[in-house]
Amino acid sequence: MLKRTFLPLLLVALAPTTVLAQIEFGIDGGLEITSTADTDDNVTEIAIPTDALRIGIWRSDRRIVELRPSVSRGSSGGRTLTELGLGAGLRFLLRDMDWEAAVPCIRVGGGLNYFKRSDADARTSDSATQFRAGAGVGVEIPIAEPVGFRLEGFYIHGFPNDNFPRFDSFGV
Hints:
By secondary structure, the chain is mainly beta. The protein is built from two helices and ten strands.
């Protein structure tokens, strides 16, 4: 237990600052409107923060690889829904980040969501996986080096399968 807890912290503490400067962490918030293929209803969600942690790994001055792990669990009326997600993407800055002015950016990516639904008595449960892809256009606004704020408009498409209809989400 101690090795799994303290070894990563020790490695981060001893890592050269150039390595640490190339990794960013973010917690997102947003407004999202989702439309599903098999219904006329739209779902509007405001989440601050969302259920995903964003980890950005700088590959160059203008290219950032983003990983988005997420965990969500909800229950109502004796039923439970657990969602695990993993997304990956690539963010491109349209010019070098100089920490003095806003920088436009473009993002593309995809991911998988695993859903598990069960009743309170655990006698019935089922699970499914859905693939999604999306893109965004935004601007990175520096606050104070190395802290910044990103404002982005995005589109996400969920691909249909035997368990899920197609969905489309737009948001900020």
